[in-house]
Design a protein that fits this description.
453 residues; seven-stranded mixed β-sheet; five-stranded antiparallel β-sheet; 38% helix; globular
Length: 453
């Protein structure tokens, strides 16, 4: 894939100047950022106005599951815009109904009703609202190593430091430790121990909070930004059993892990569990038009059969977004993208990343499946000391900054969070592109190795 435009640094400078003058960026100190001006993108790559091309190992924000500018999805959006560009959510619209049908066909169990939102955070907000209304309870439990969005309830559910400035301690959220053997809070030595101890910890937390006060447990099926920690065997099934025993709604957040990312339509398929509510967004239409939603079980849907659900959005099930979802799902089906993600993970990404770990002392652990991987970078493999401290910034984060700069110098745009780099390319990345990314990581990890003991 080559750039679609000739290098034009002057145009790039103008784009950046306008951005700096008027765009207020998320998660940033506005005066300390220097955003790259993007000229175009296609497939697994994007490029700037200076003609530099980058292999995108971030999939945007882990959402371009079928890559950039897929012609069938672009054409579907164009066709829908010419036919019916928008319509209010209270009406039955063909493309909205078709998107809901295609999603419901792929969700596990009886999650057959779809409430559309504009993105993942709103999906989580509405899932929690549904759970609270369904149970008549207020508290919601979520894991410390998690991210669920930046809106009011979602940010309080989030376990990482982005929650701290907005956490008033009054949102009815209780956090607990989910399993993570590599950095076990339970001093476990095996996956079986970690699962059992994490489940006991969760049940103890519920007991001390009062089971009759807990509306929902919200978990990312496989945590994304927090580190792609695949749950140990039996854990999610154990959470399902605990929820059933106490009448708690089980919510799985599949915003990042869903729609082929893990080599299955939804990550829940790997673990044989069916939640009561499932949130989605991102890969549902590869991020081409904002869309998210909640897949709802029959039991919870019945709660609102005669009782109005007190929630909605102006753009719920927006026709352009739904047209993009319909086209994306059909592309994924026709081009076997889900199967390809599983294959590339098993044959290229997984083996390739583990081979890098063998040669680079800065790699403490490799985790993941499908097109969803993380490298846990360390100063010392024996002690597992992270390459940078938790929530490091400034000079303390210099080793990861140096690693990131080396990736970009080698034509790879990395996903970096704290002491980790994630390999989360498009789910339809080719074998050659995946190997190109691994080679760039190999070179950049030599920089990270310089900071090891």
């Amino acid at each position: 894939m080559t750039p679609h435009v000739e290098p034009d640094p002057q145009a790039g400078a103008a784009v950046k100047a306008a951005d700096r003058a008027h765009v207020f960026h998320s998660w940033s100190a506005q005066g300390l950022i220097d955003p790259l001006a993007v000229a175009g993108a296609g497939g697994s790559y994007f490029w700037d106005y200076d003609g530099n091309r980058y292999l995108d190992f971030t999939s945007g924000l882990v959402y371009t599951n079928i890559g950039y500018q897929h012609p069938r999805v672009v054409e579907a959006i164009r066709e829908q815009a010419g036919r019916l560009a928008t319509f209010a959510p209270a009406f039955a619209v063909d493309v909205r109904s078709e998107a809901a049908r295609l999603i419901a066909e792929r969700t596990p169990g009886d999650l057959d009703k779809i409430f559309f939102t504009n993105g993942g955070a709103e999906a989580v907000e509405n899932a929690v609202r549904m759970a609270r209304l369904h149970t008549g309870r207020a508290k919601v439990l979520s894991a410390y190593r998690s991210y669920h969005g930046a809106t009011s309830t979602a940010i309080n559910l989030t376990g990482d430091p982005r929650r701290w400035p907005s956490d008033t301690g009054s949102a009815g959220v209780v956090h607990f430790w989910a399993p993570f053997l590599y950095r076990s809070p339970f001093y476990s030595s095996t996956q079986a121990e970690e699962s059992a101890r994490a489940l006991q910890h969760l049940e103890d937390t519920i007991a001390f909070e009062g089971p009759q006060t807990v509306a929902a447990i919200v978990l990312e099926t496989i945590p994304g930004t927090a580190g792609i920690m695949t749950p140990p065997p039996g854990y999610l099934a154990g959470v399902r059993e605990i929820c059933d025993r106490y009448g708690i709604v089980f919510v799985l957040d599949e915003v990042m892990a869903g729609f082929g990312r893990t080599g299955a339509w939804f990550a829940a398929e790997h673990y044989g569990v069916v939640p009561d509510l499932m949130t989605f967004a991102k890969g549902v239409n590869s991020g081409y038009v904002p869309l998210g939603g909640v897949a709802i079980s029959a039991e919870i849907a019945a709660t609102f059969e005669k009782r109005p659900y007190p929630g909605g959005l102006t753009y719920s099930g927006h026709p352009l977004a739904c047209a993009a979802a319909v086209a994306t799902i059909r592309v994924m089906e026709d081009e076997k993208v889900v199967e390809h993600a599983a294959h590339i993970g098993e044959t290229v990404l997984g083996p390739g990343l583990r081979e890098l770990a063998e040669r680079h002392p800065s790699v403490g652990e490799v985790r993941g499946l499908g097109a969803f991987w993380a490298l846990d970078l360390v100063r010392d493999r024996e002690t597992r000391e992270p390459l940078v401290p938790y929530n490091a910034s400034g000079e303390a984060a210099a080793p990861m900054a140096a690693f990131g700069a080396a990736c970009k110098k080698n034509g790879l745009w990395p996903f970096i969070n704290m002491n980790r780099t994630h390999a989360v390319p498009a789910c339809n990345i080719t074998e050659a592109e995946a190997k190109e990314g691994l080679a760039a990581l190999d070179a950049a990890l030599t920089v990270a190795d310089e900071y090891t003991v």
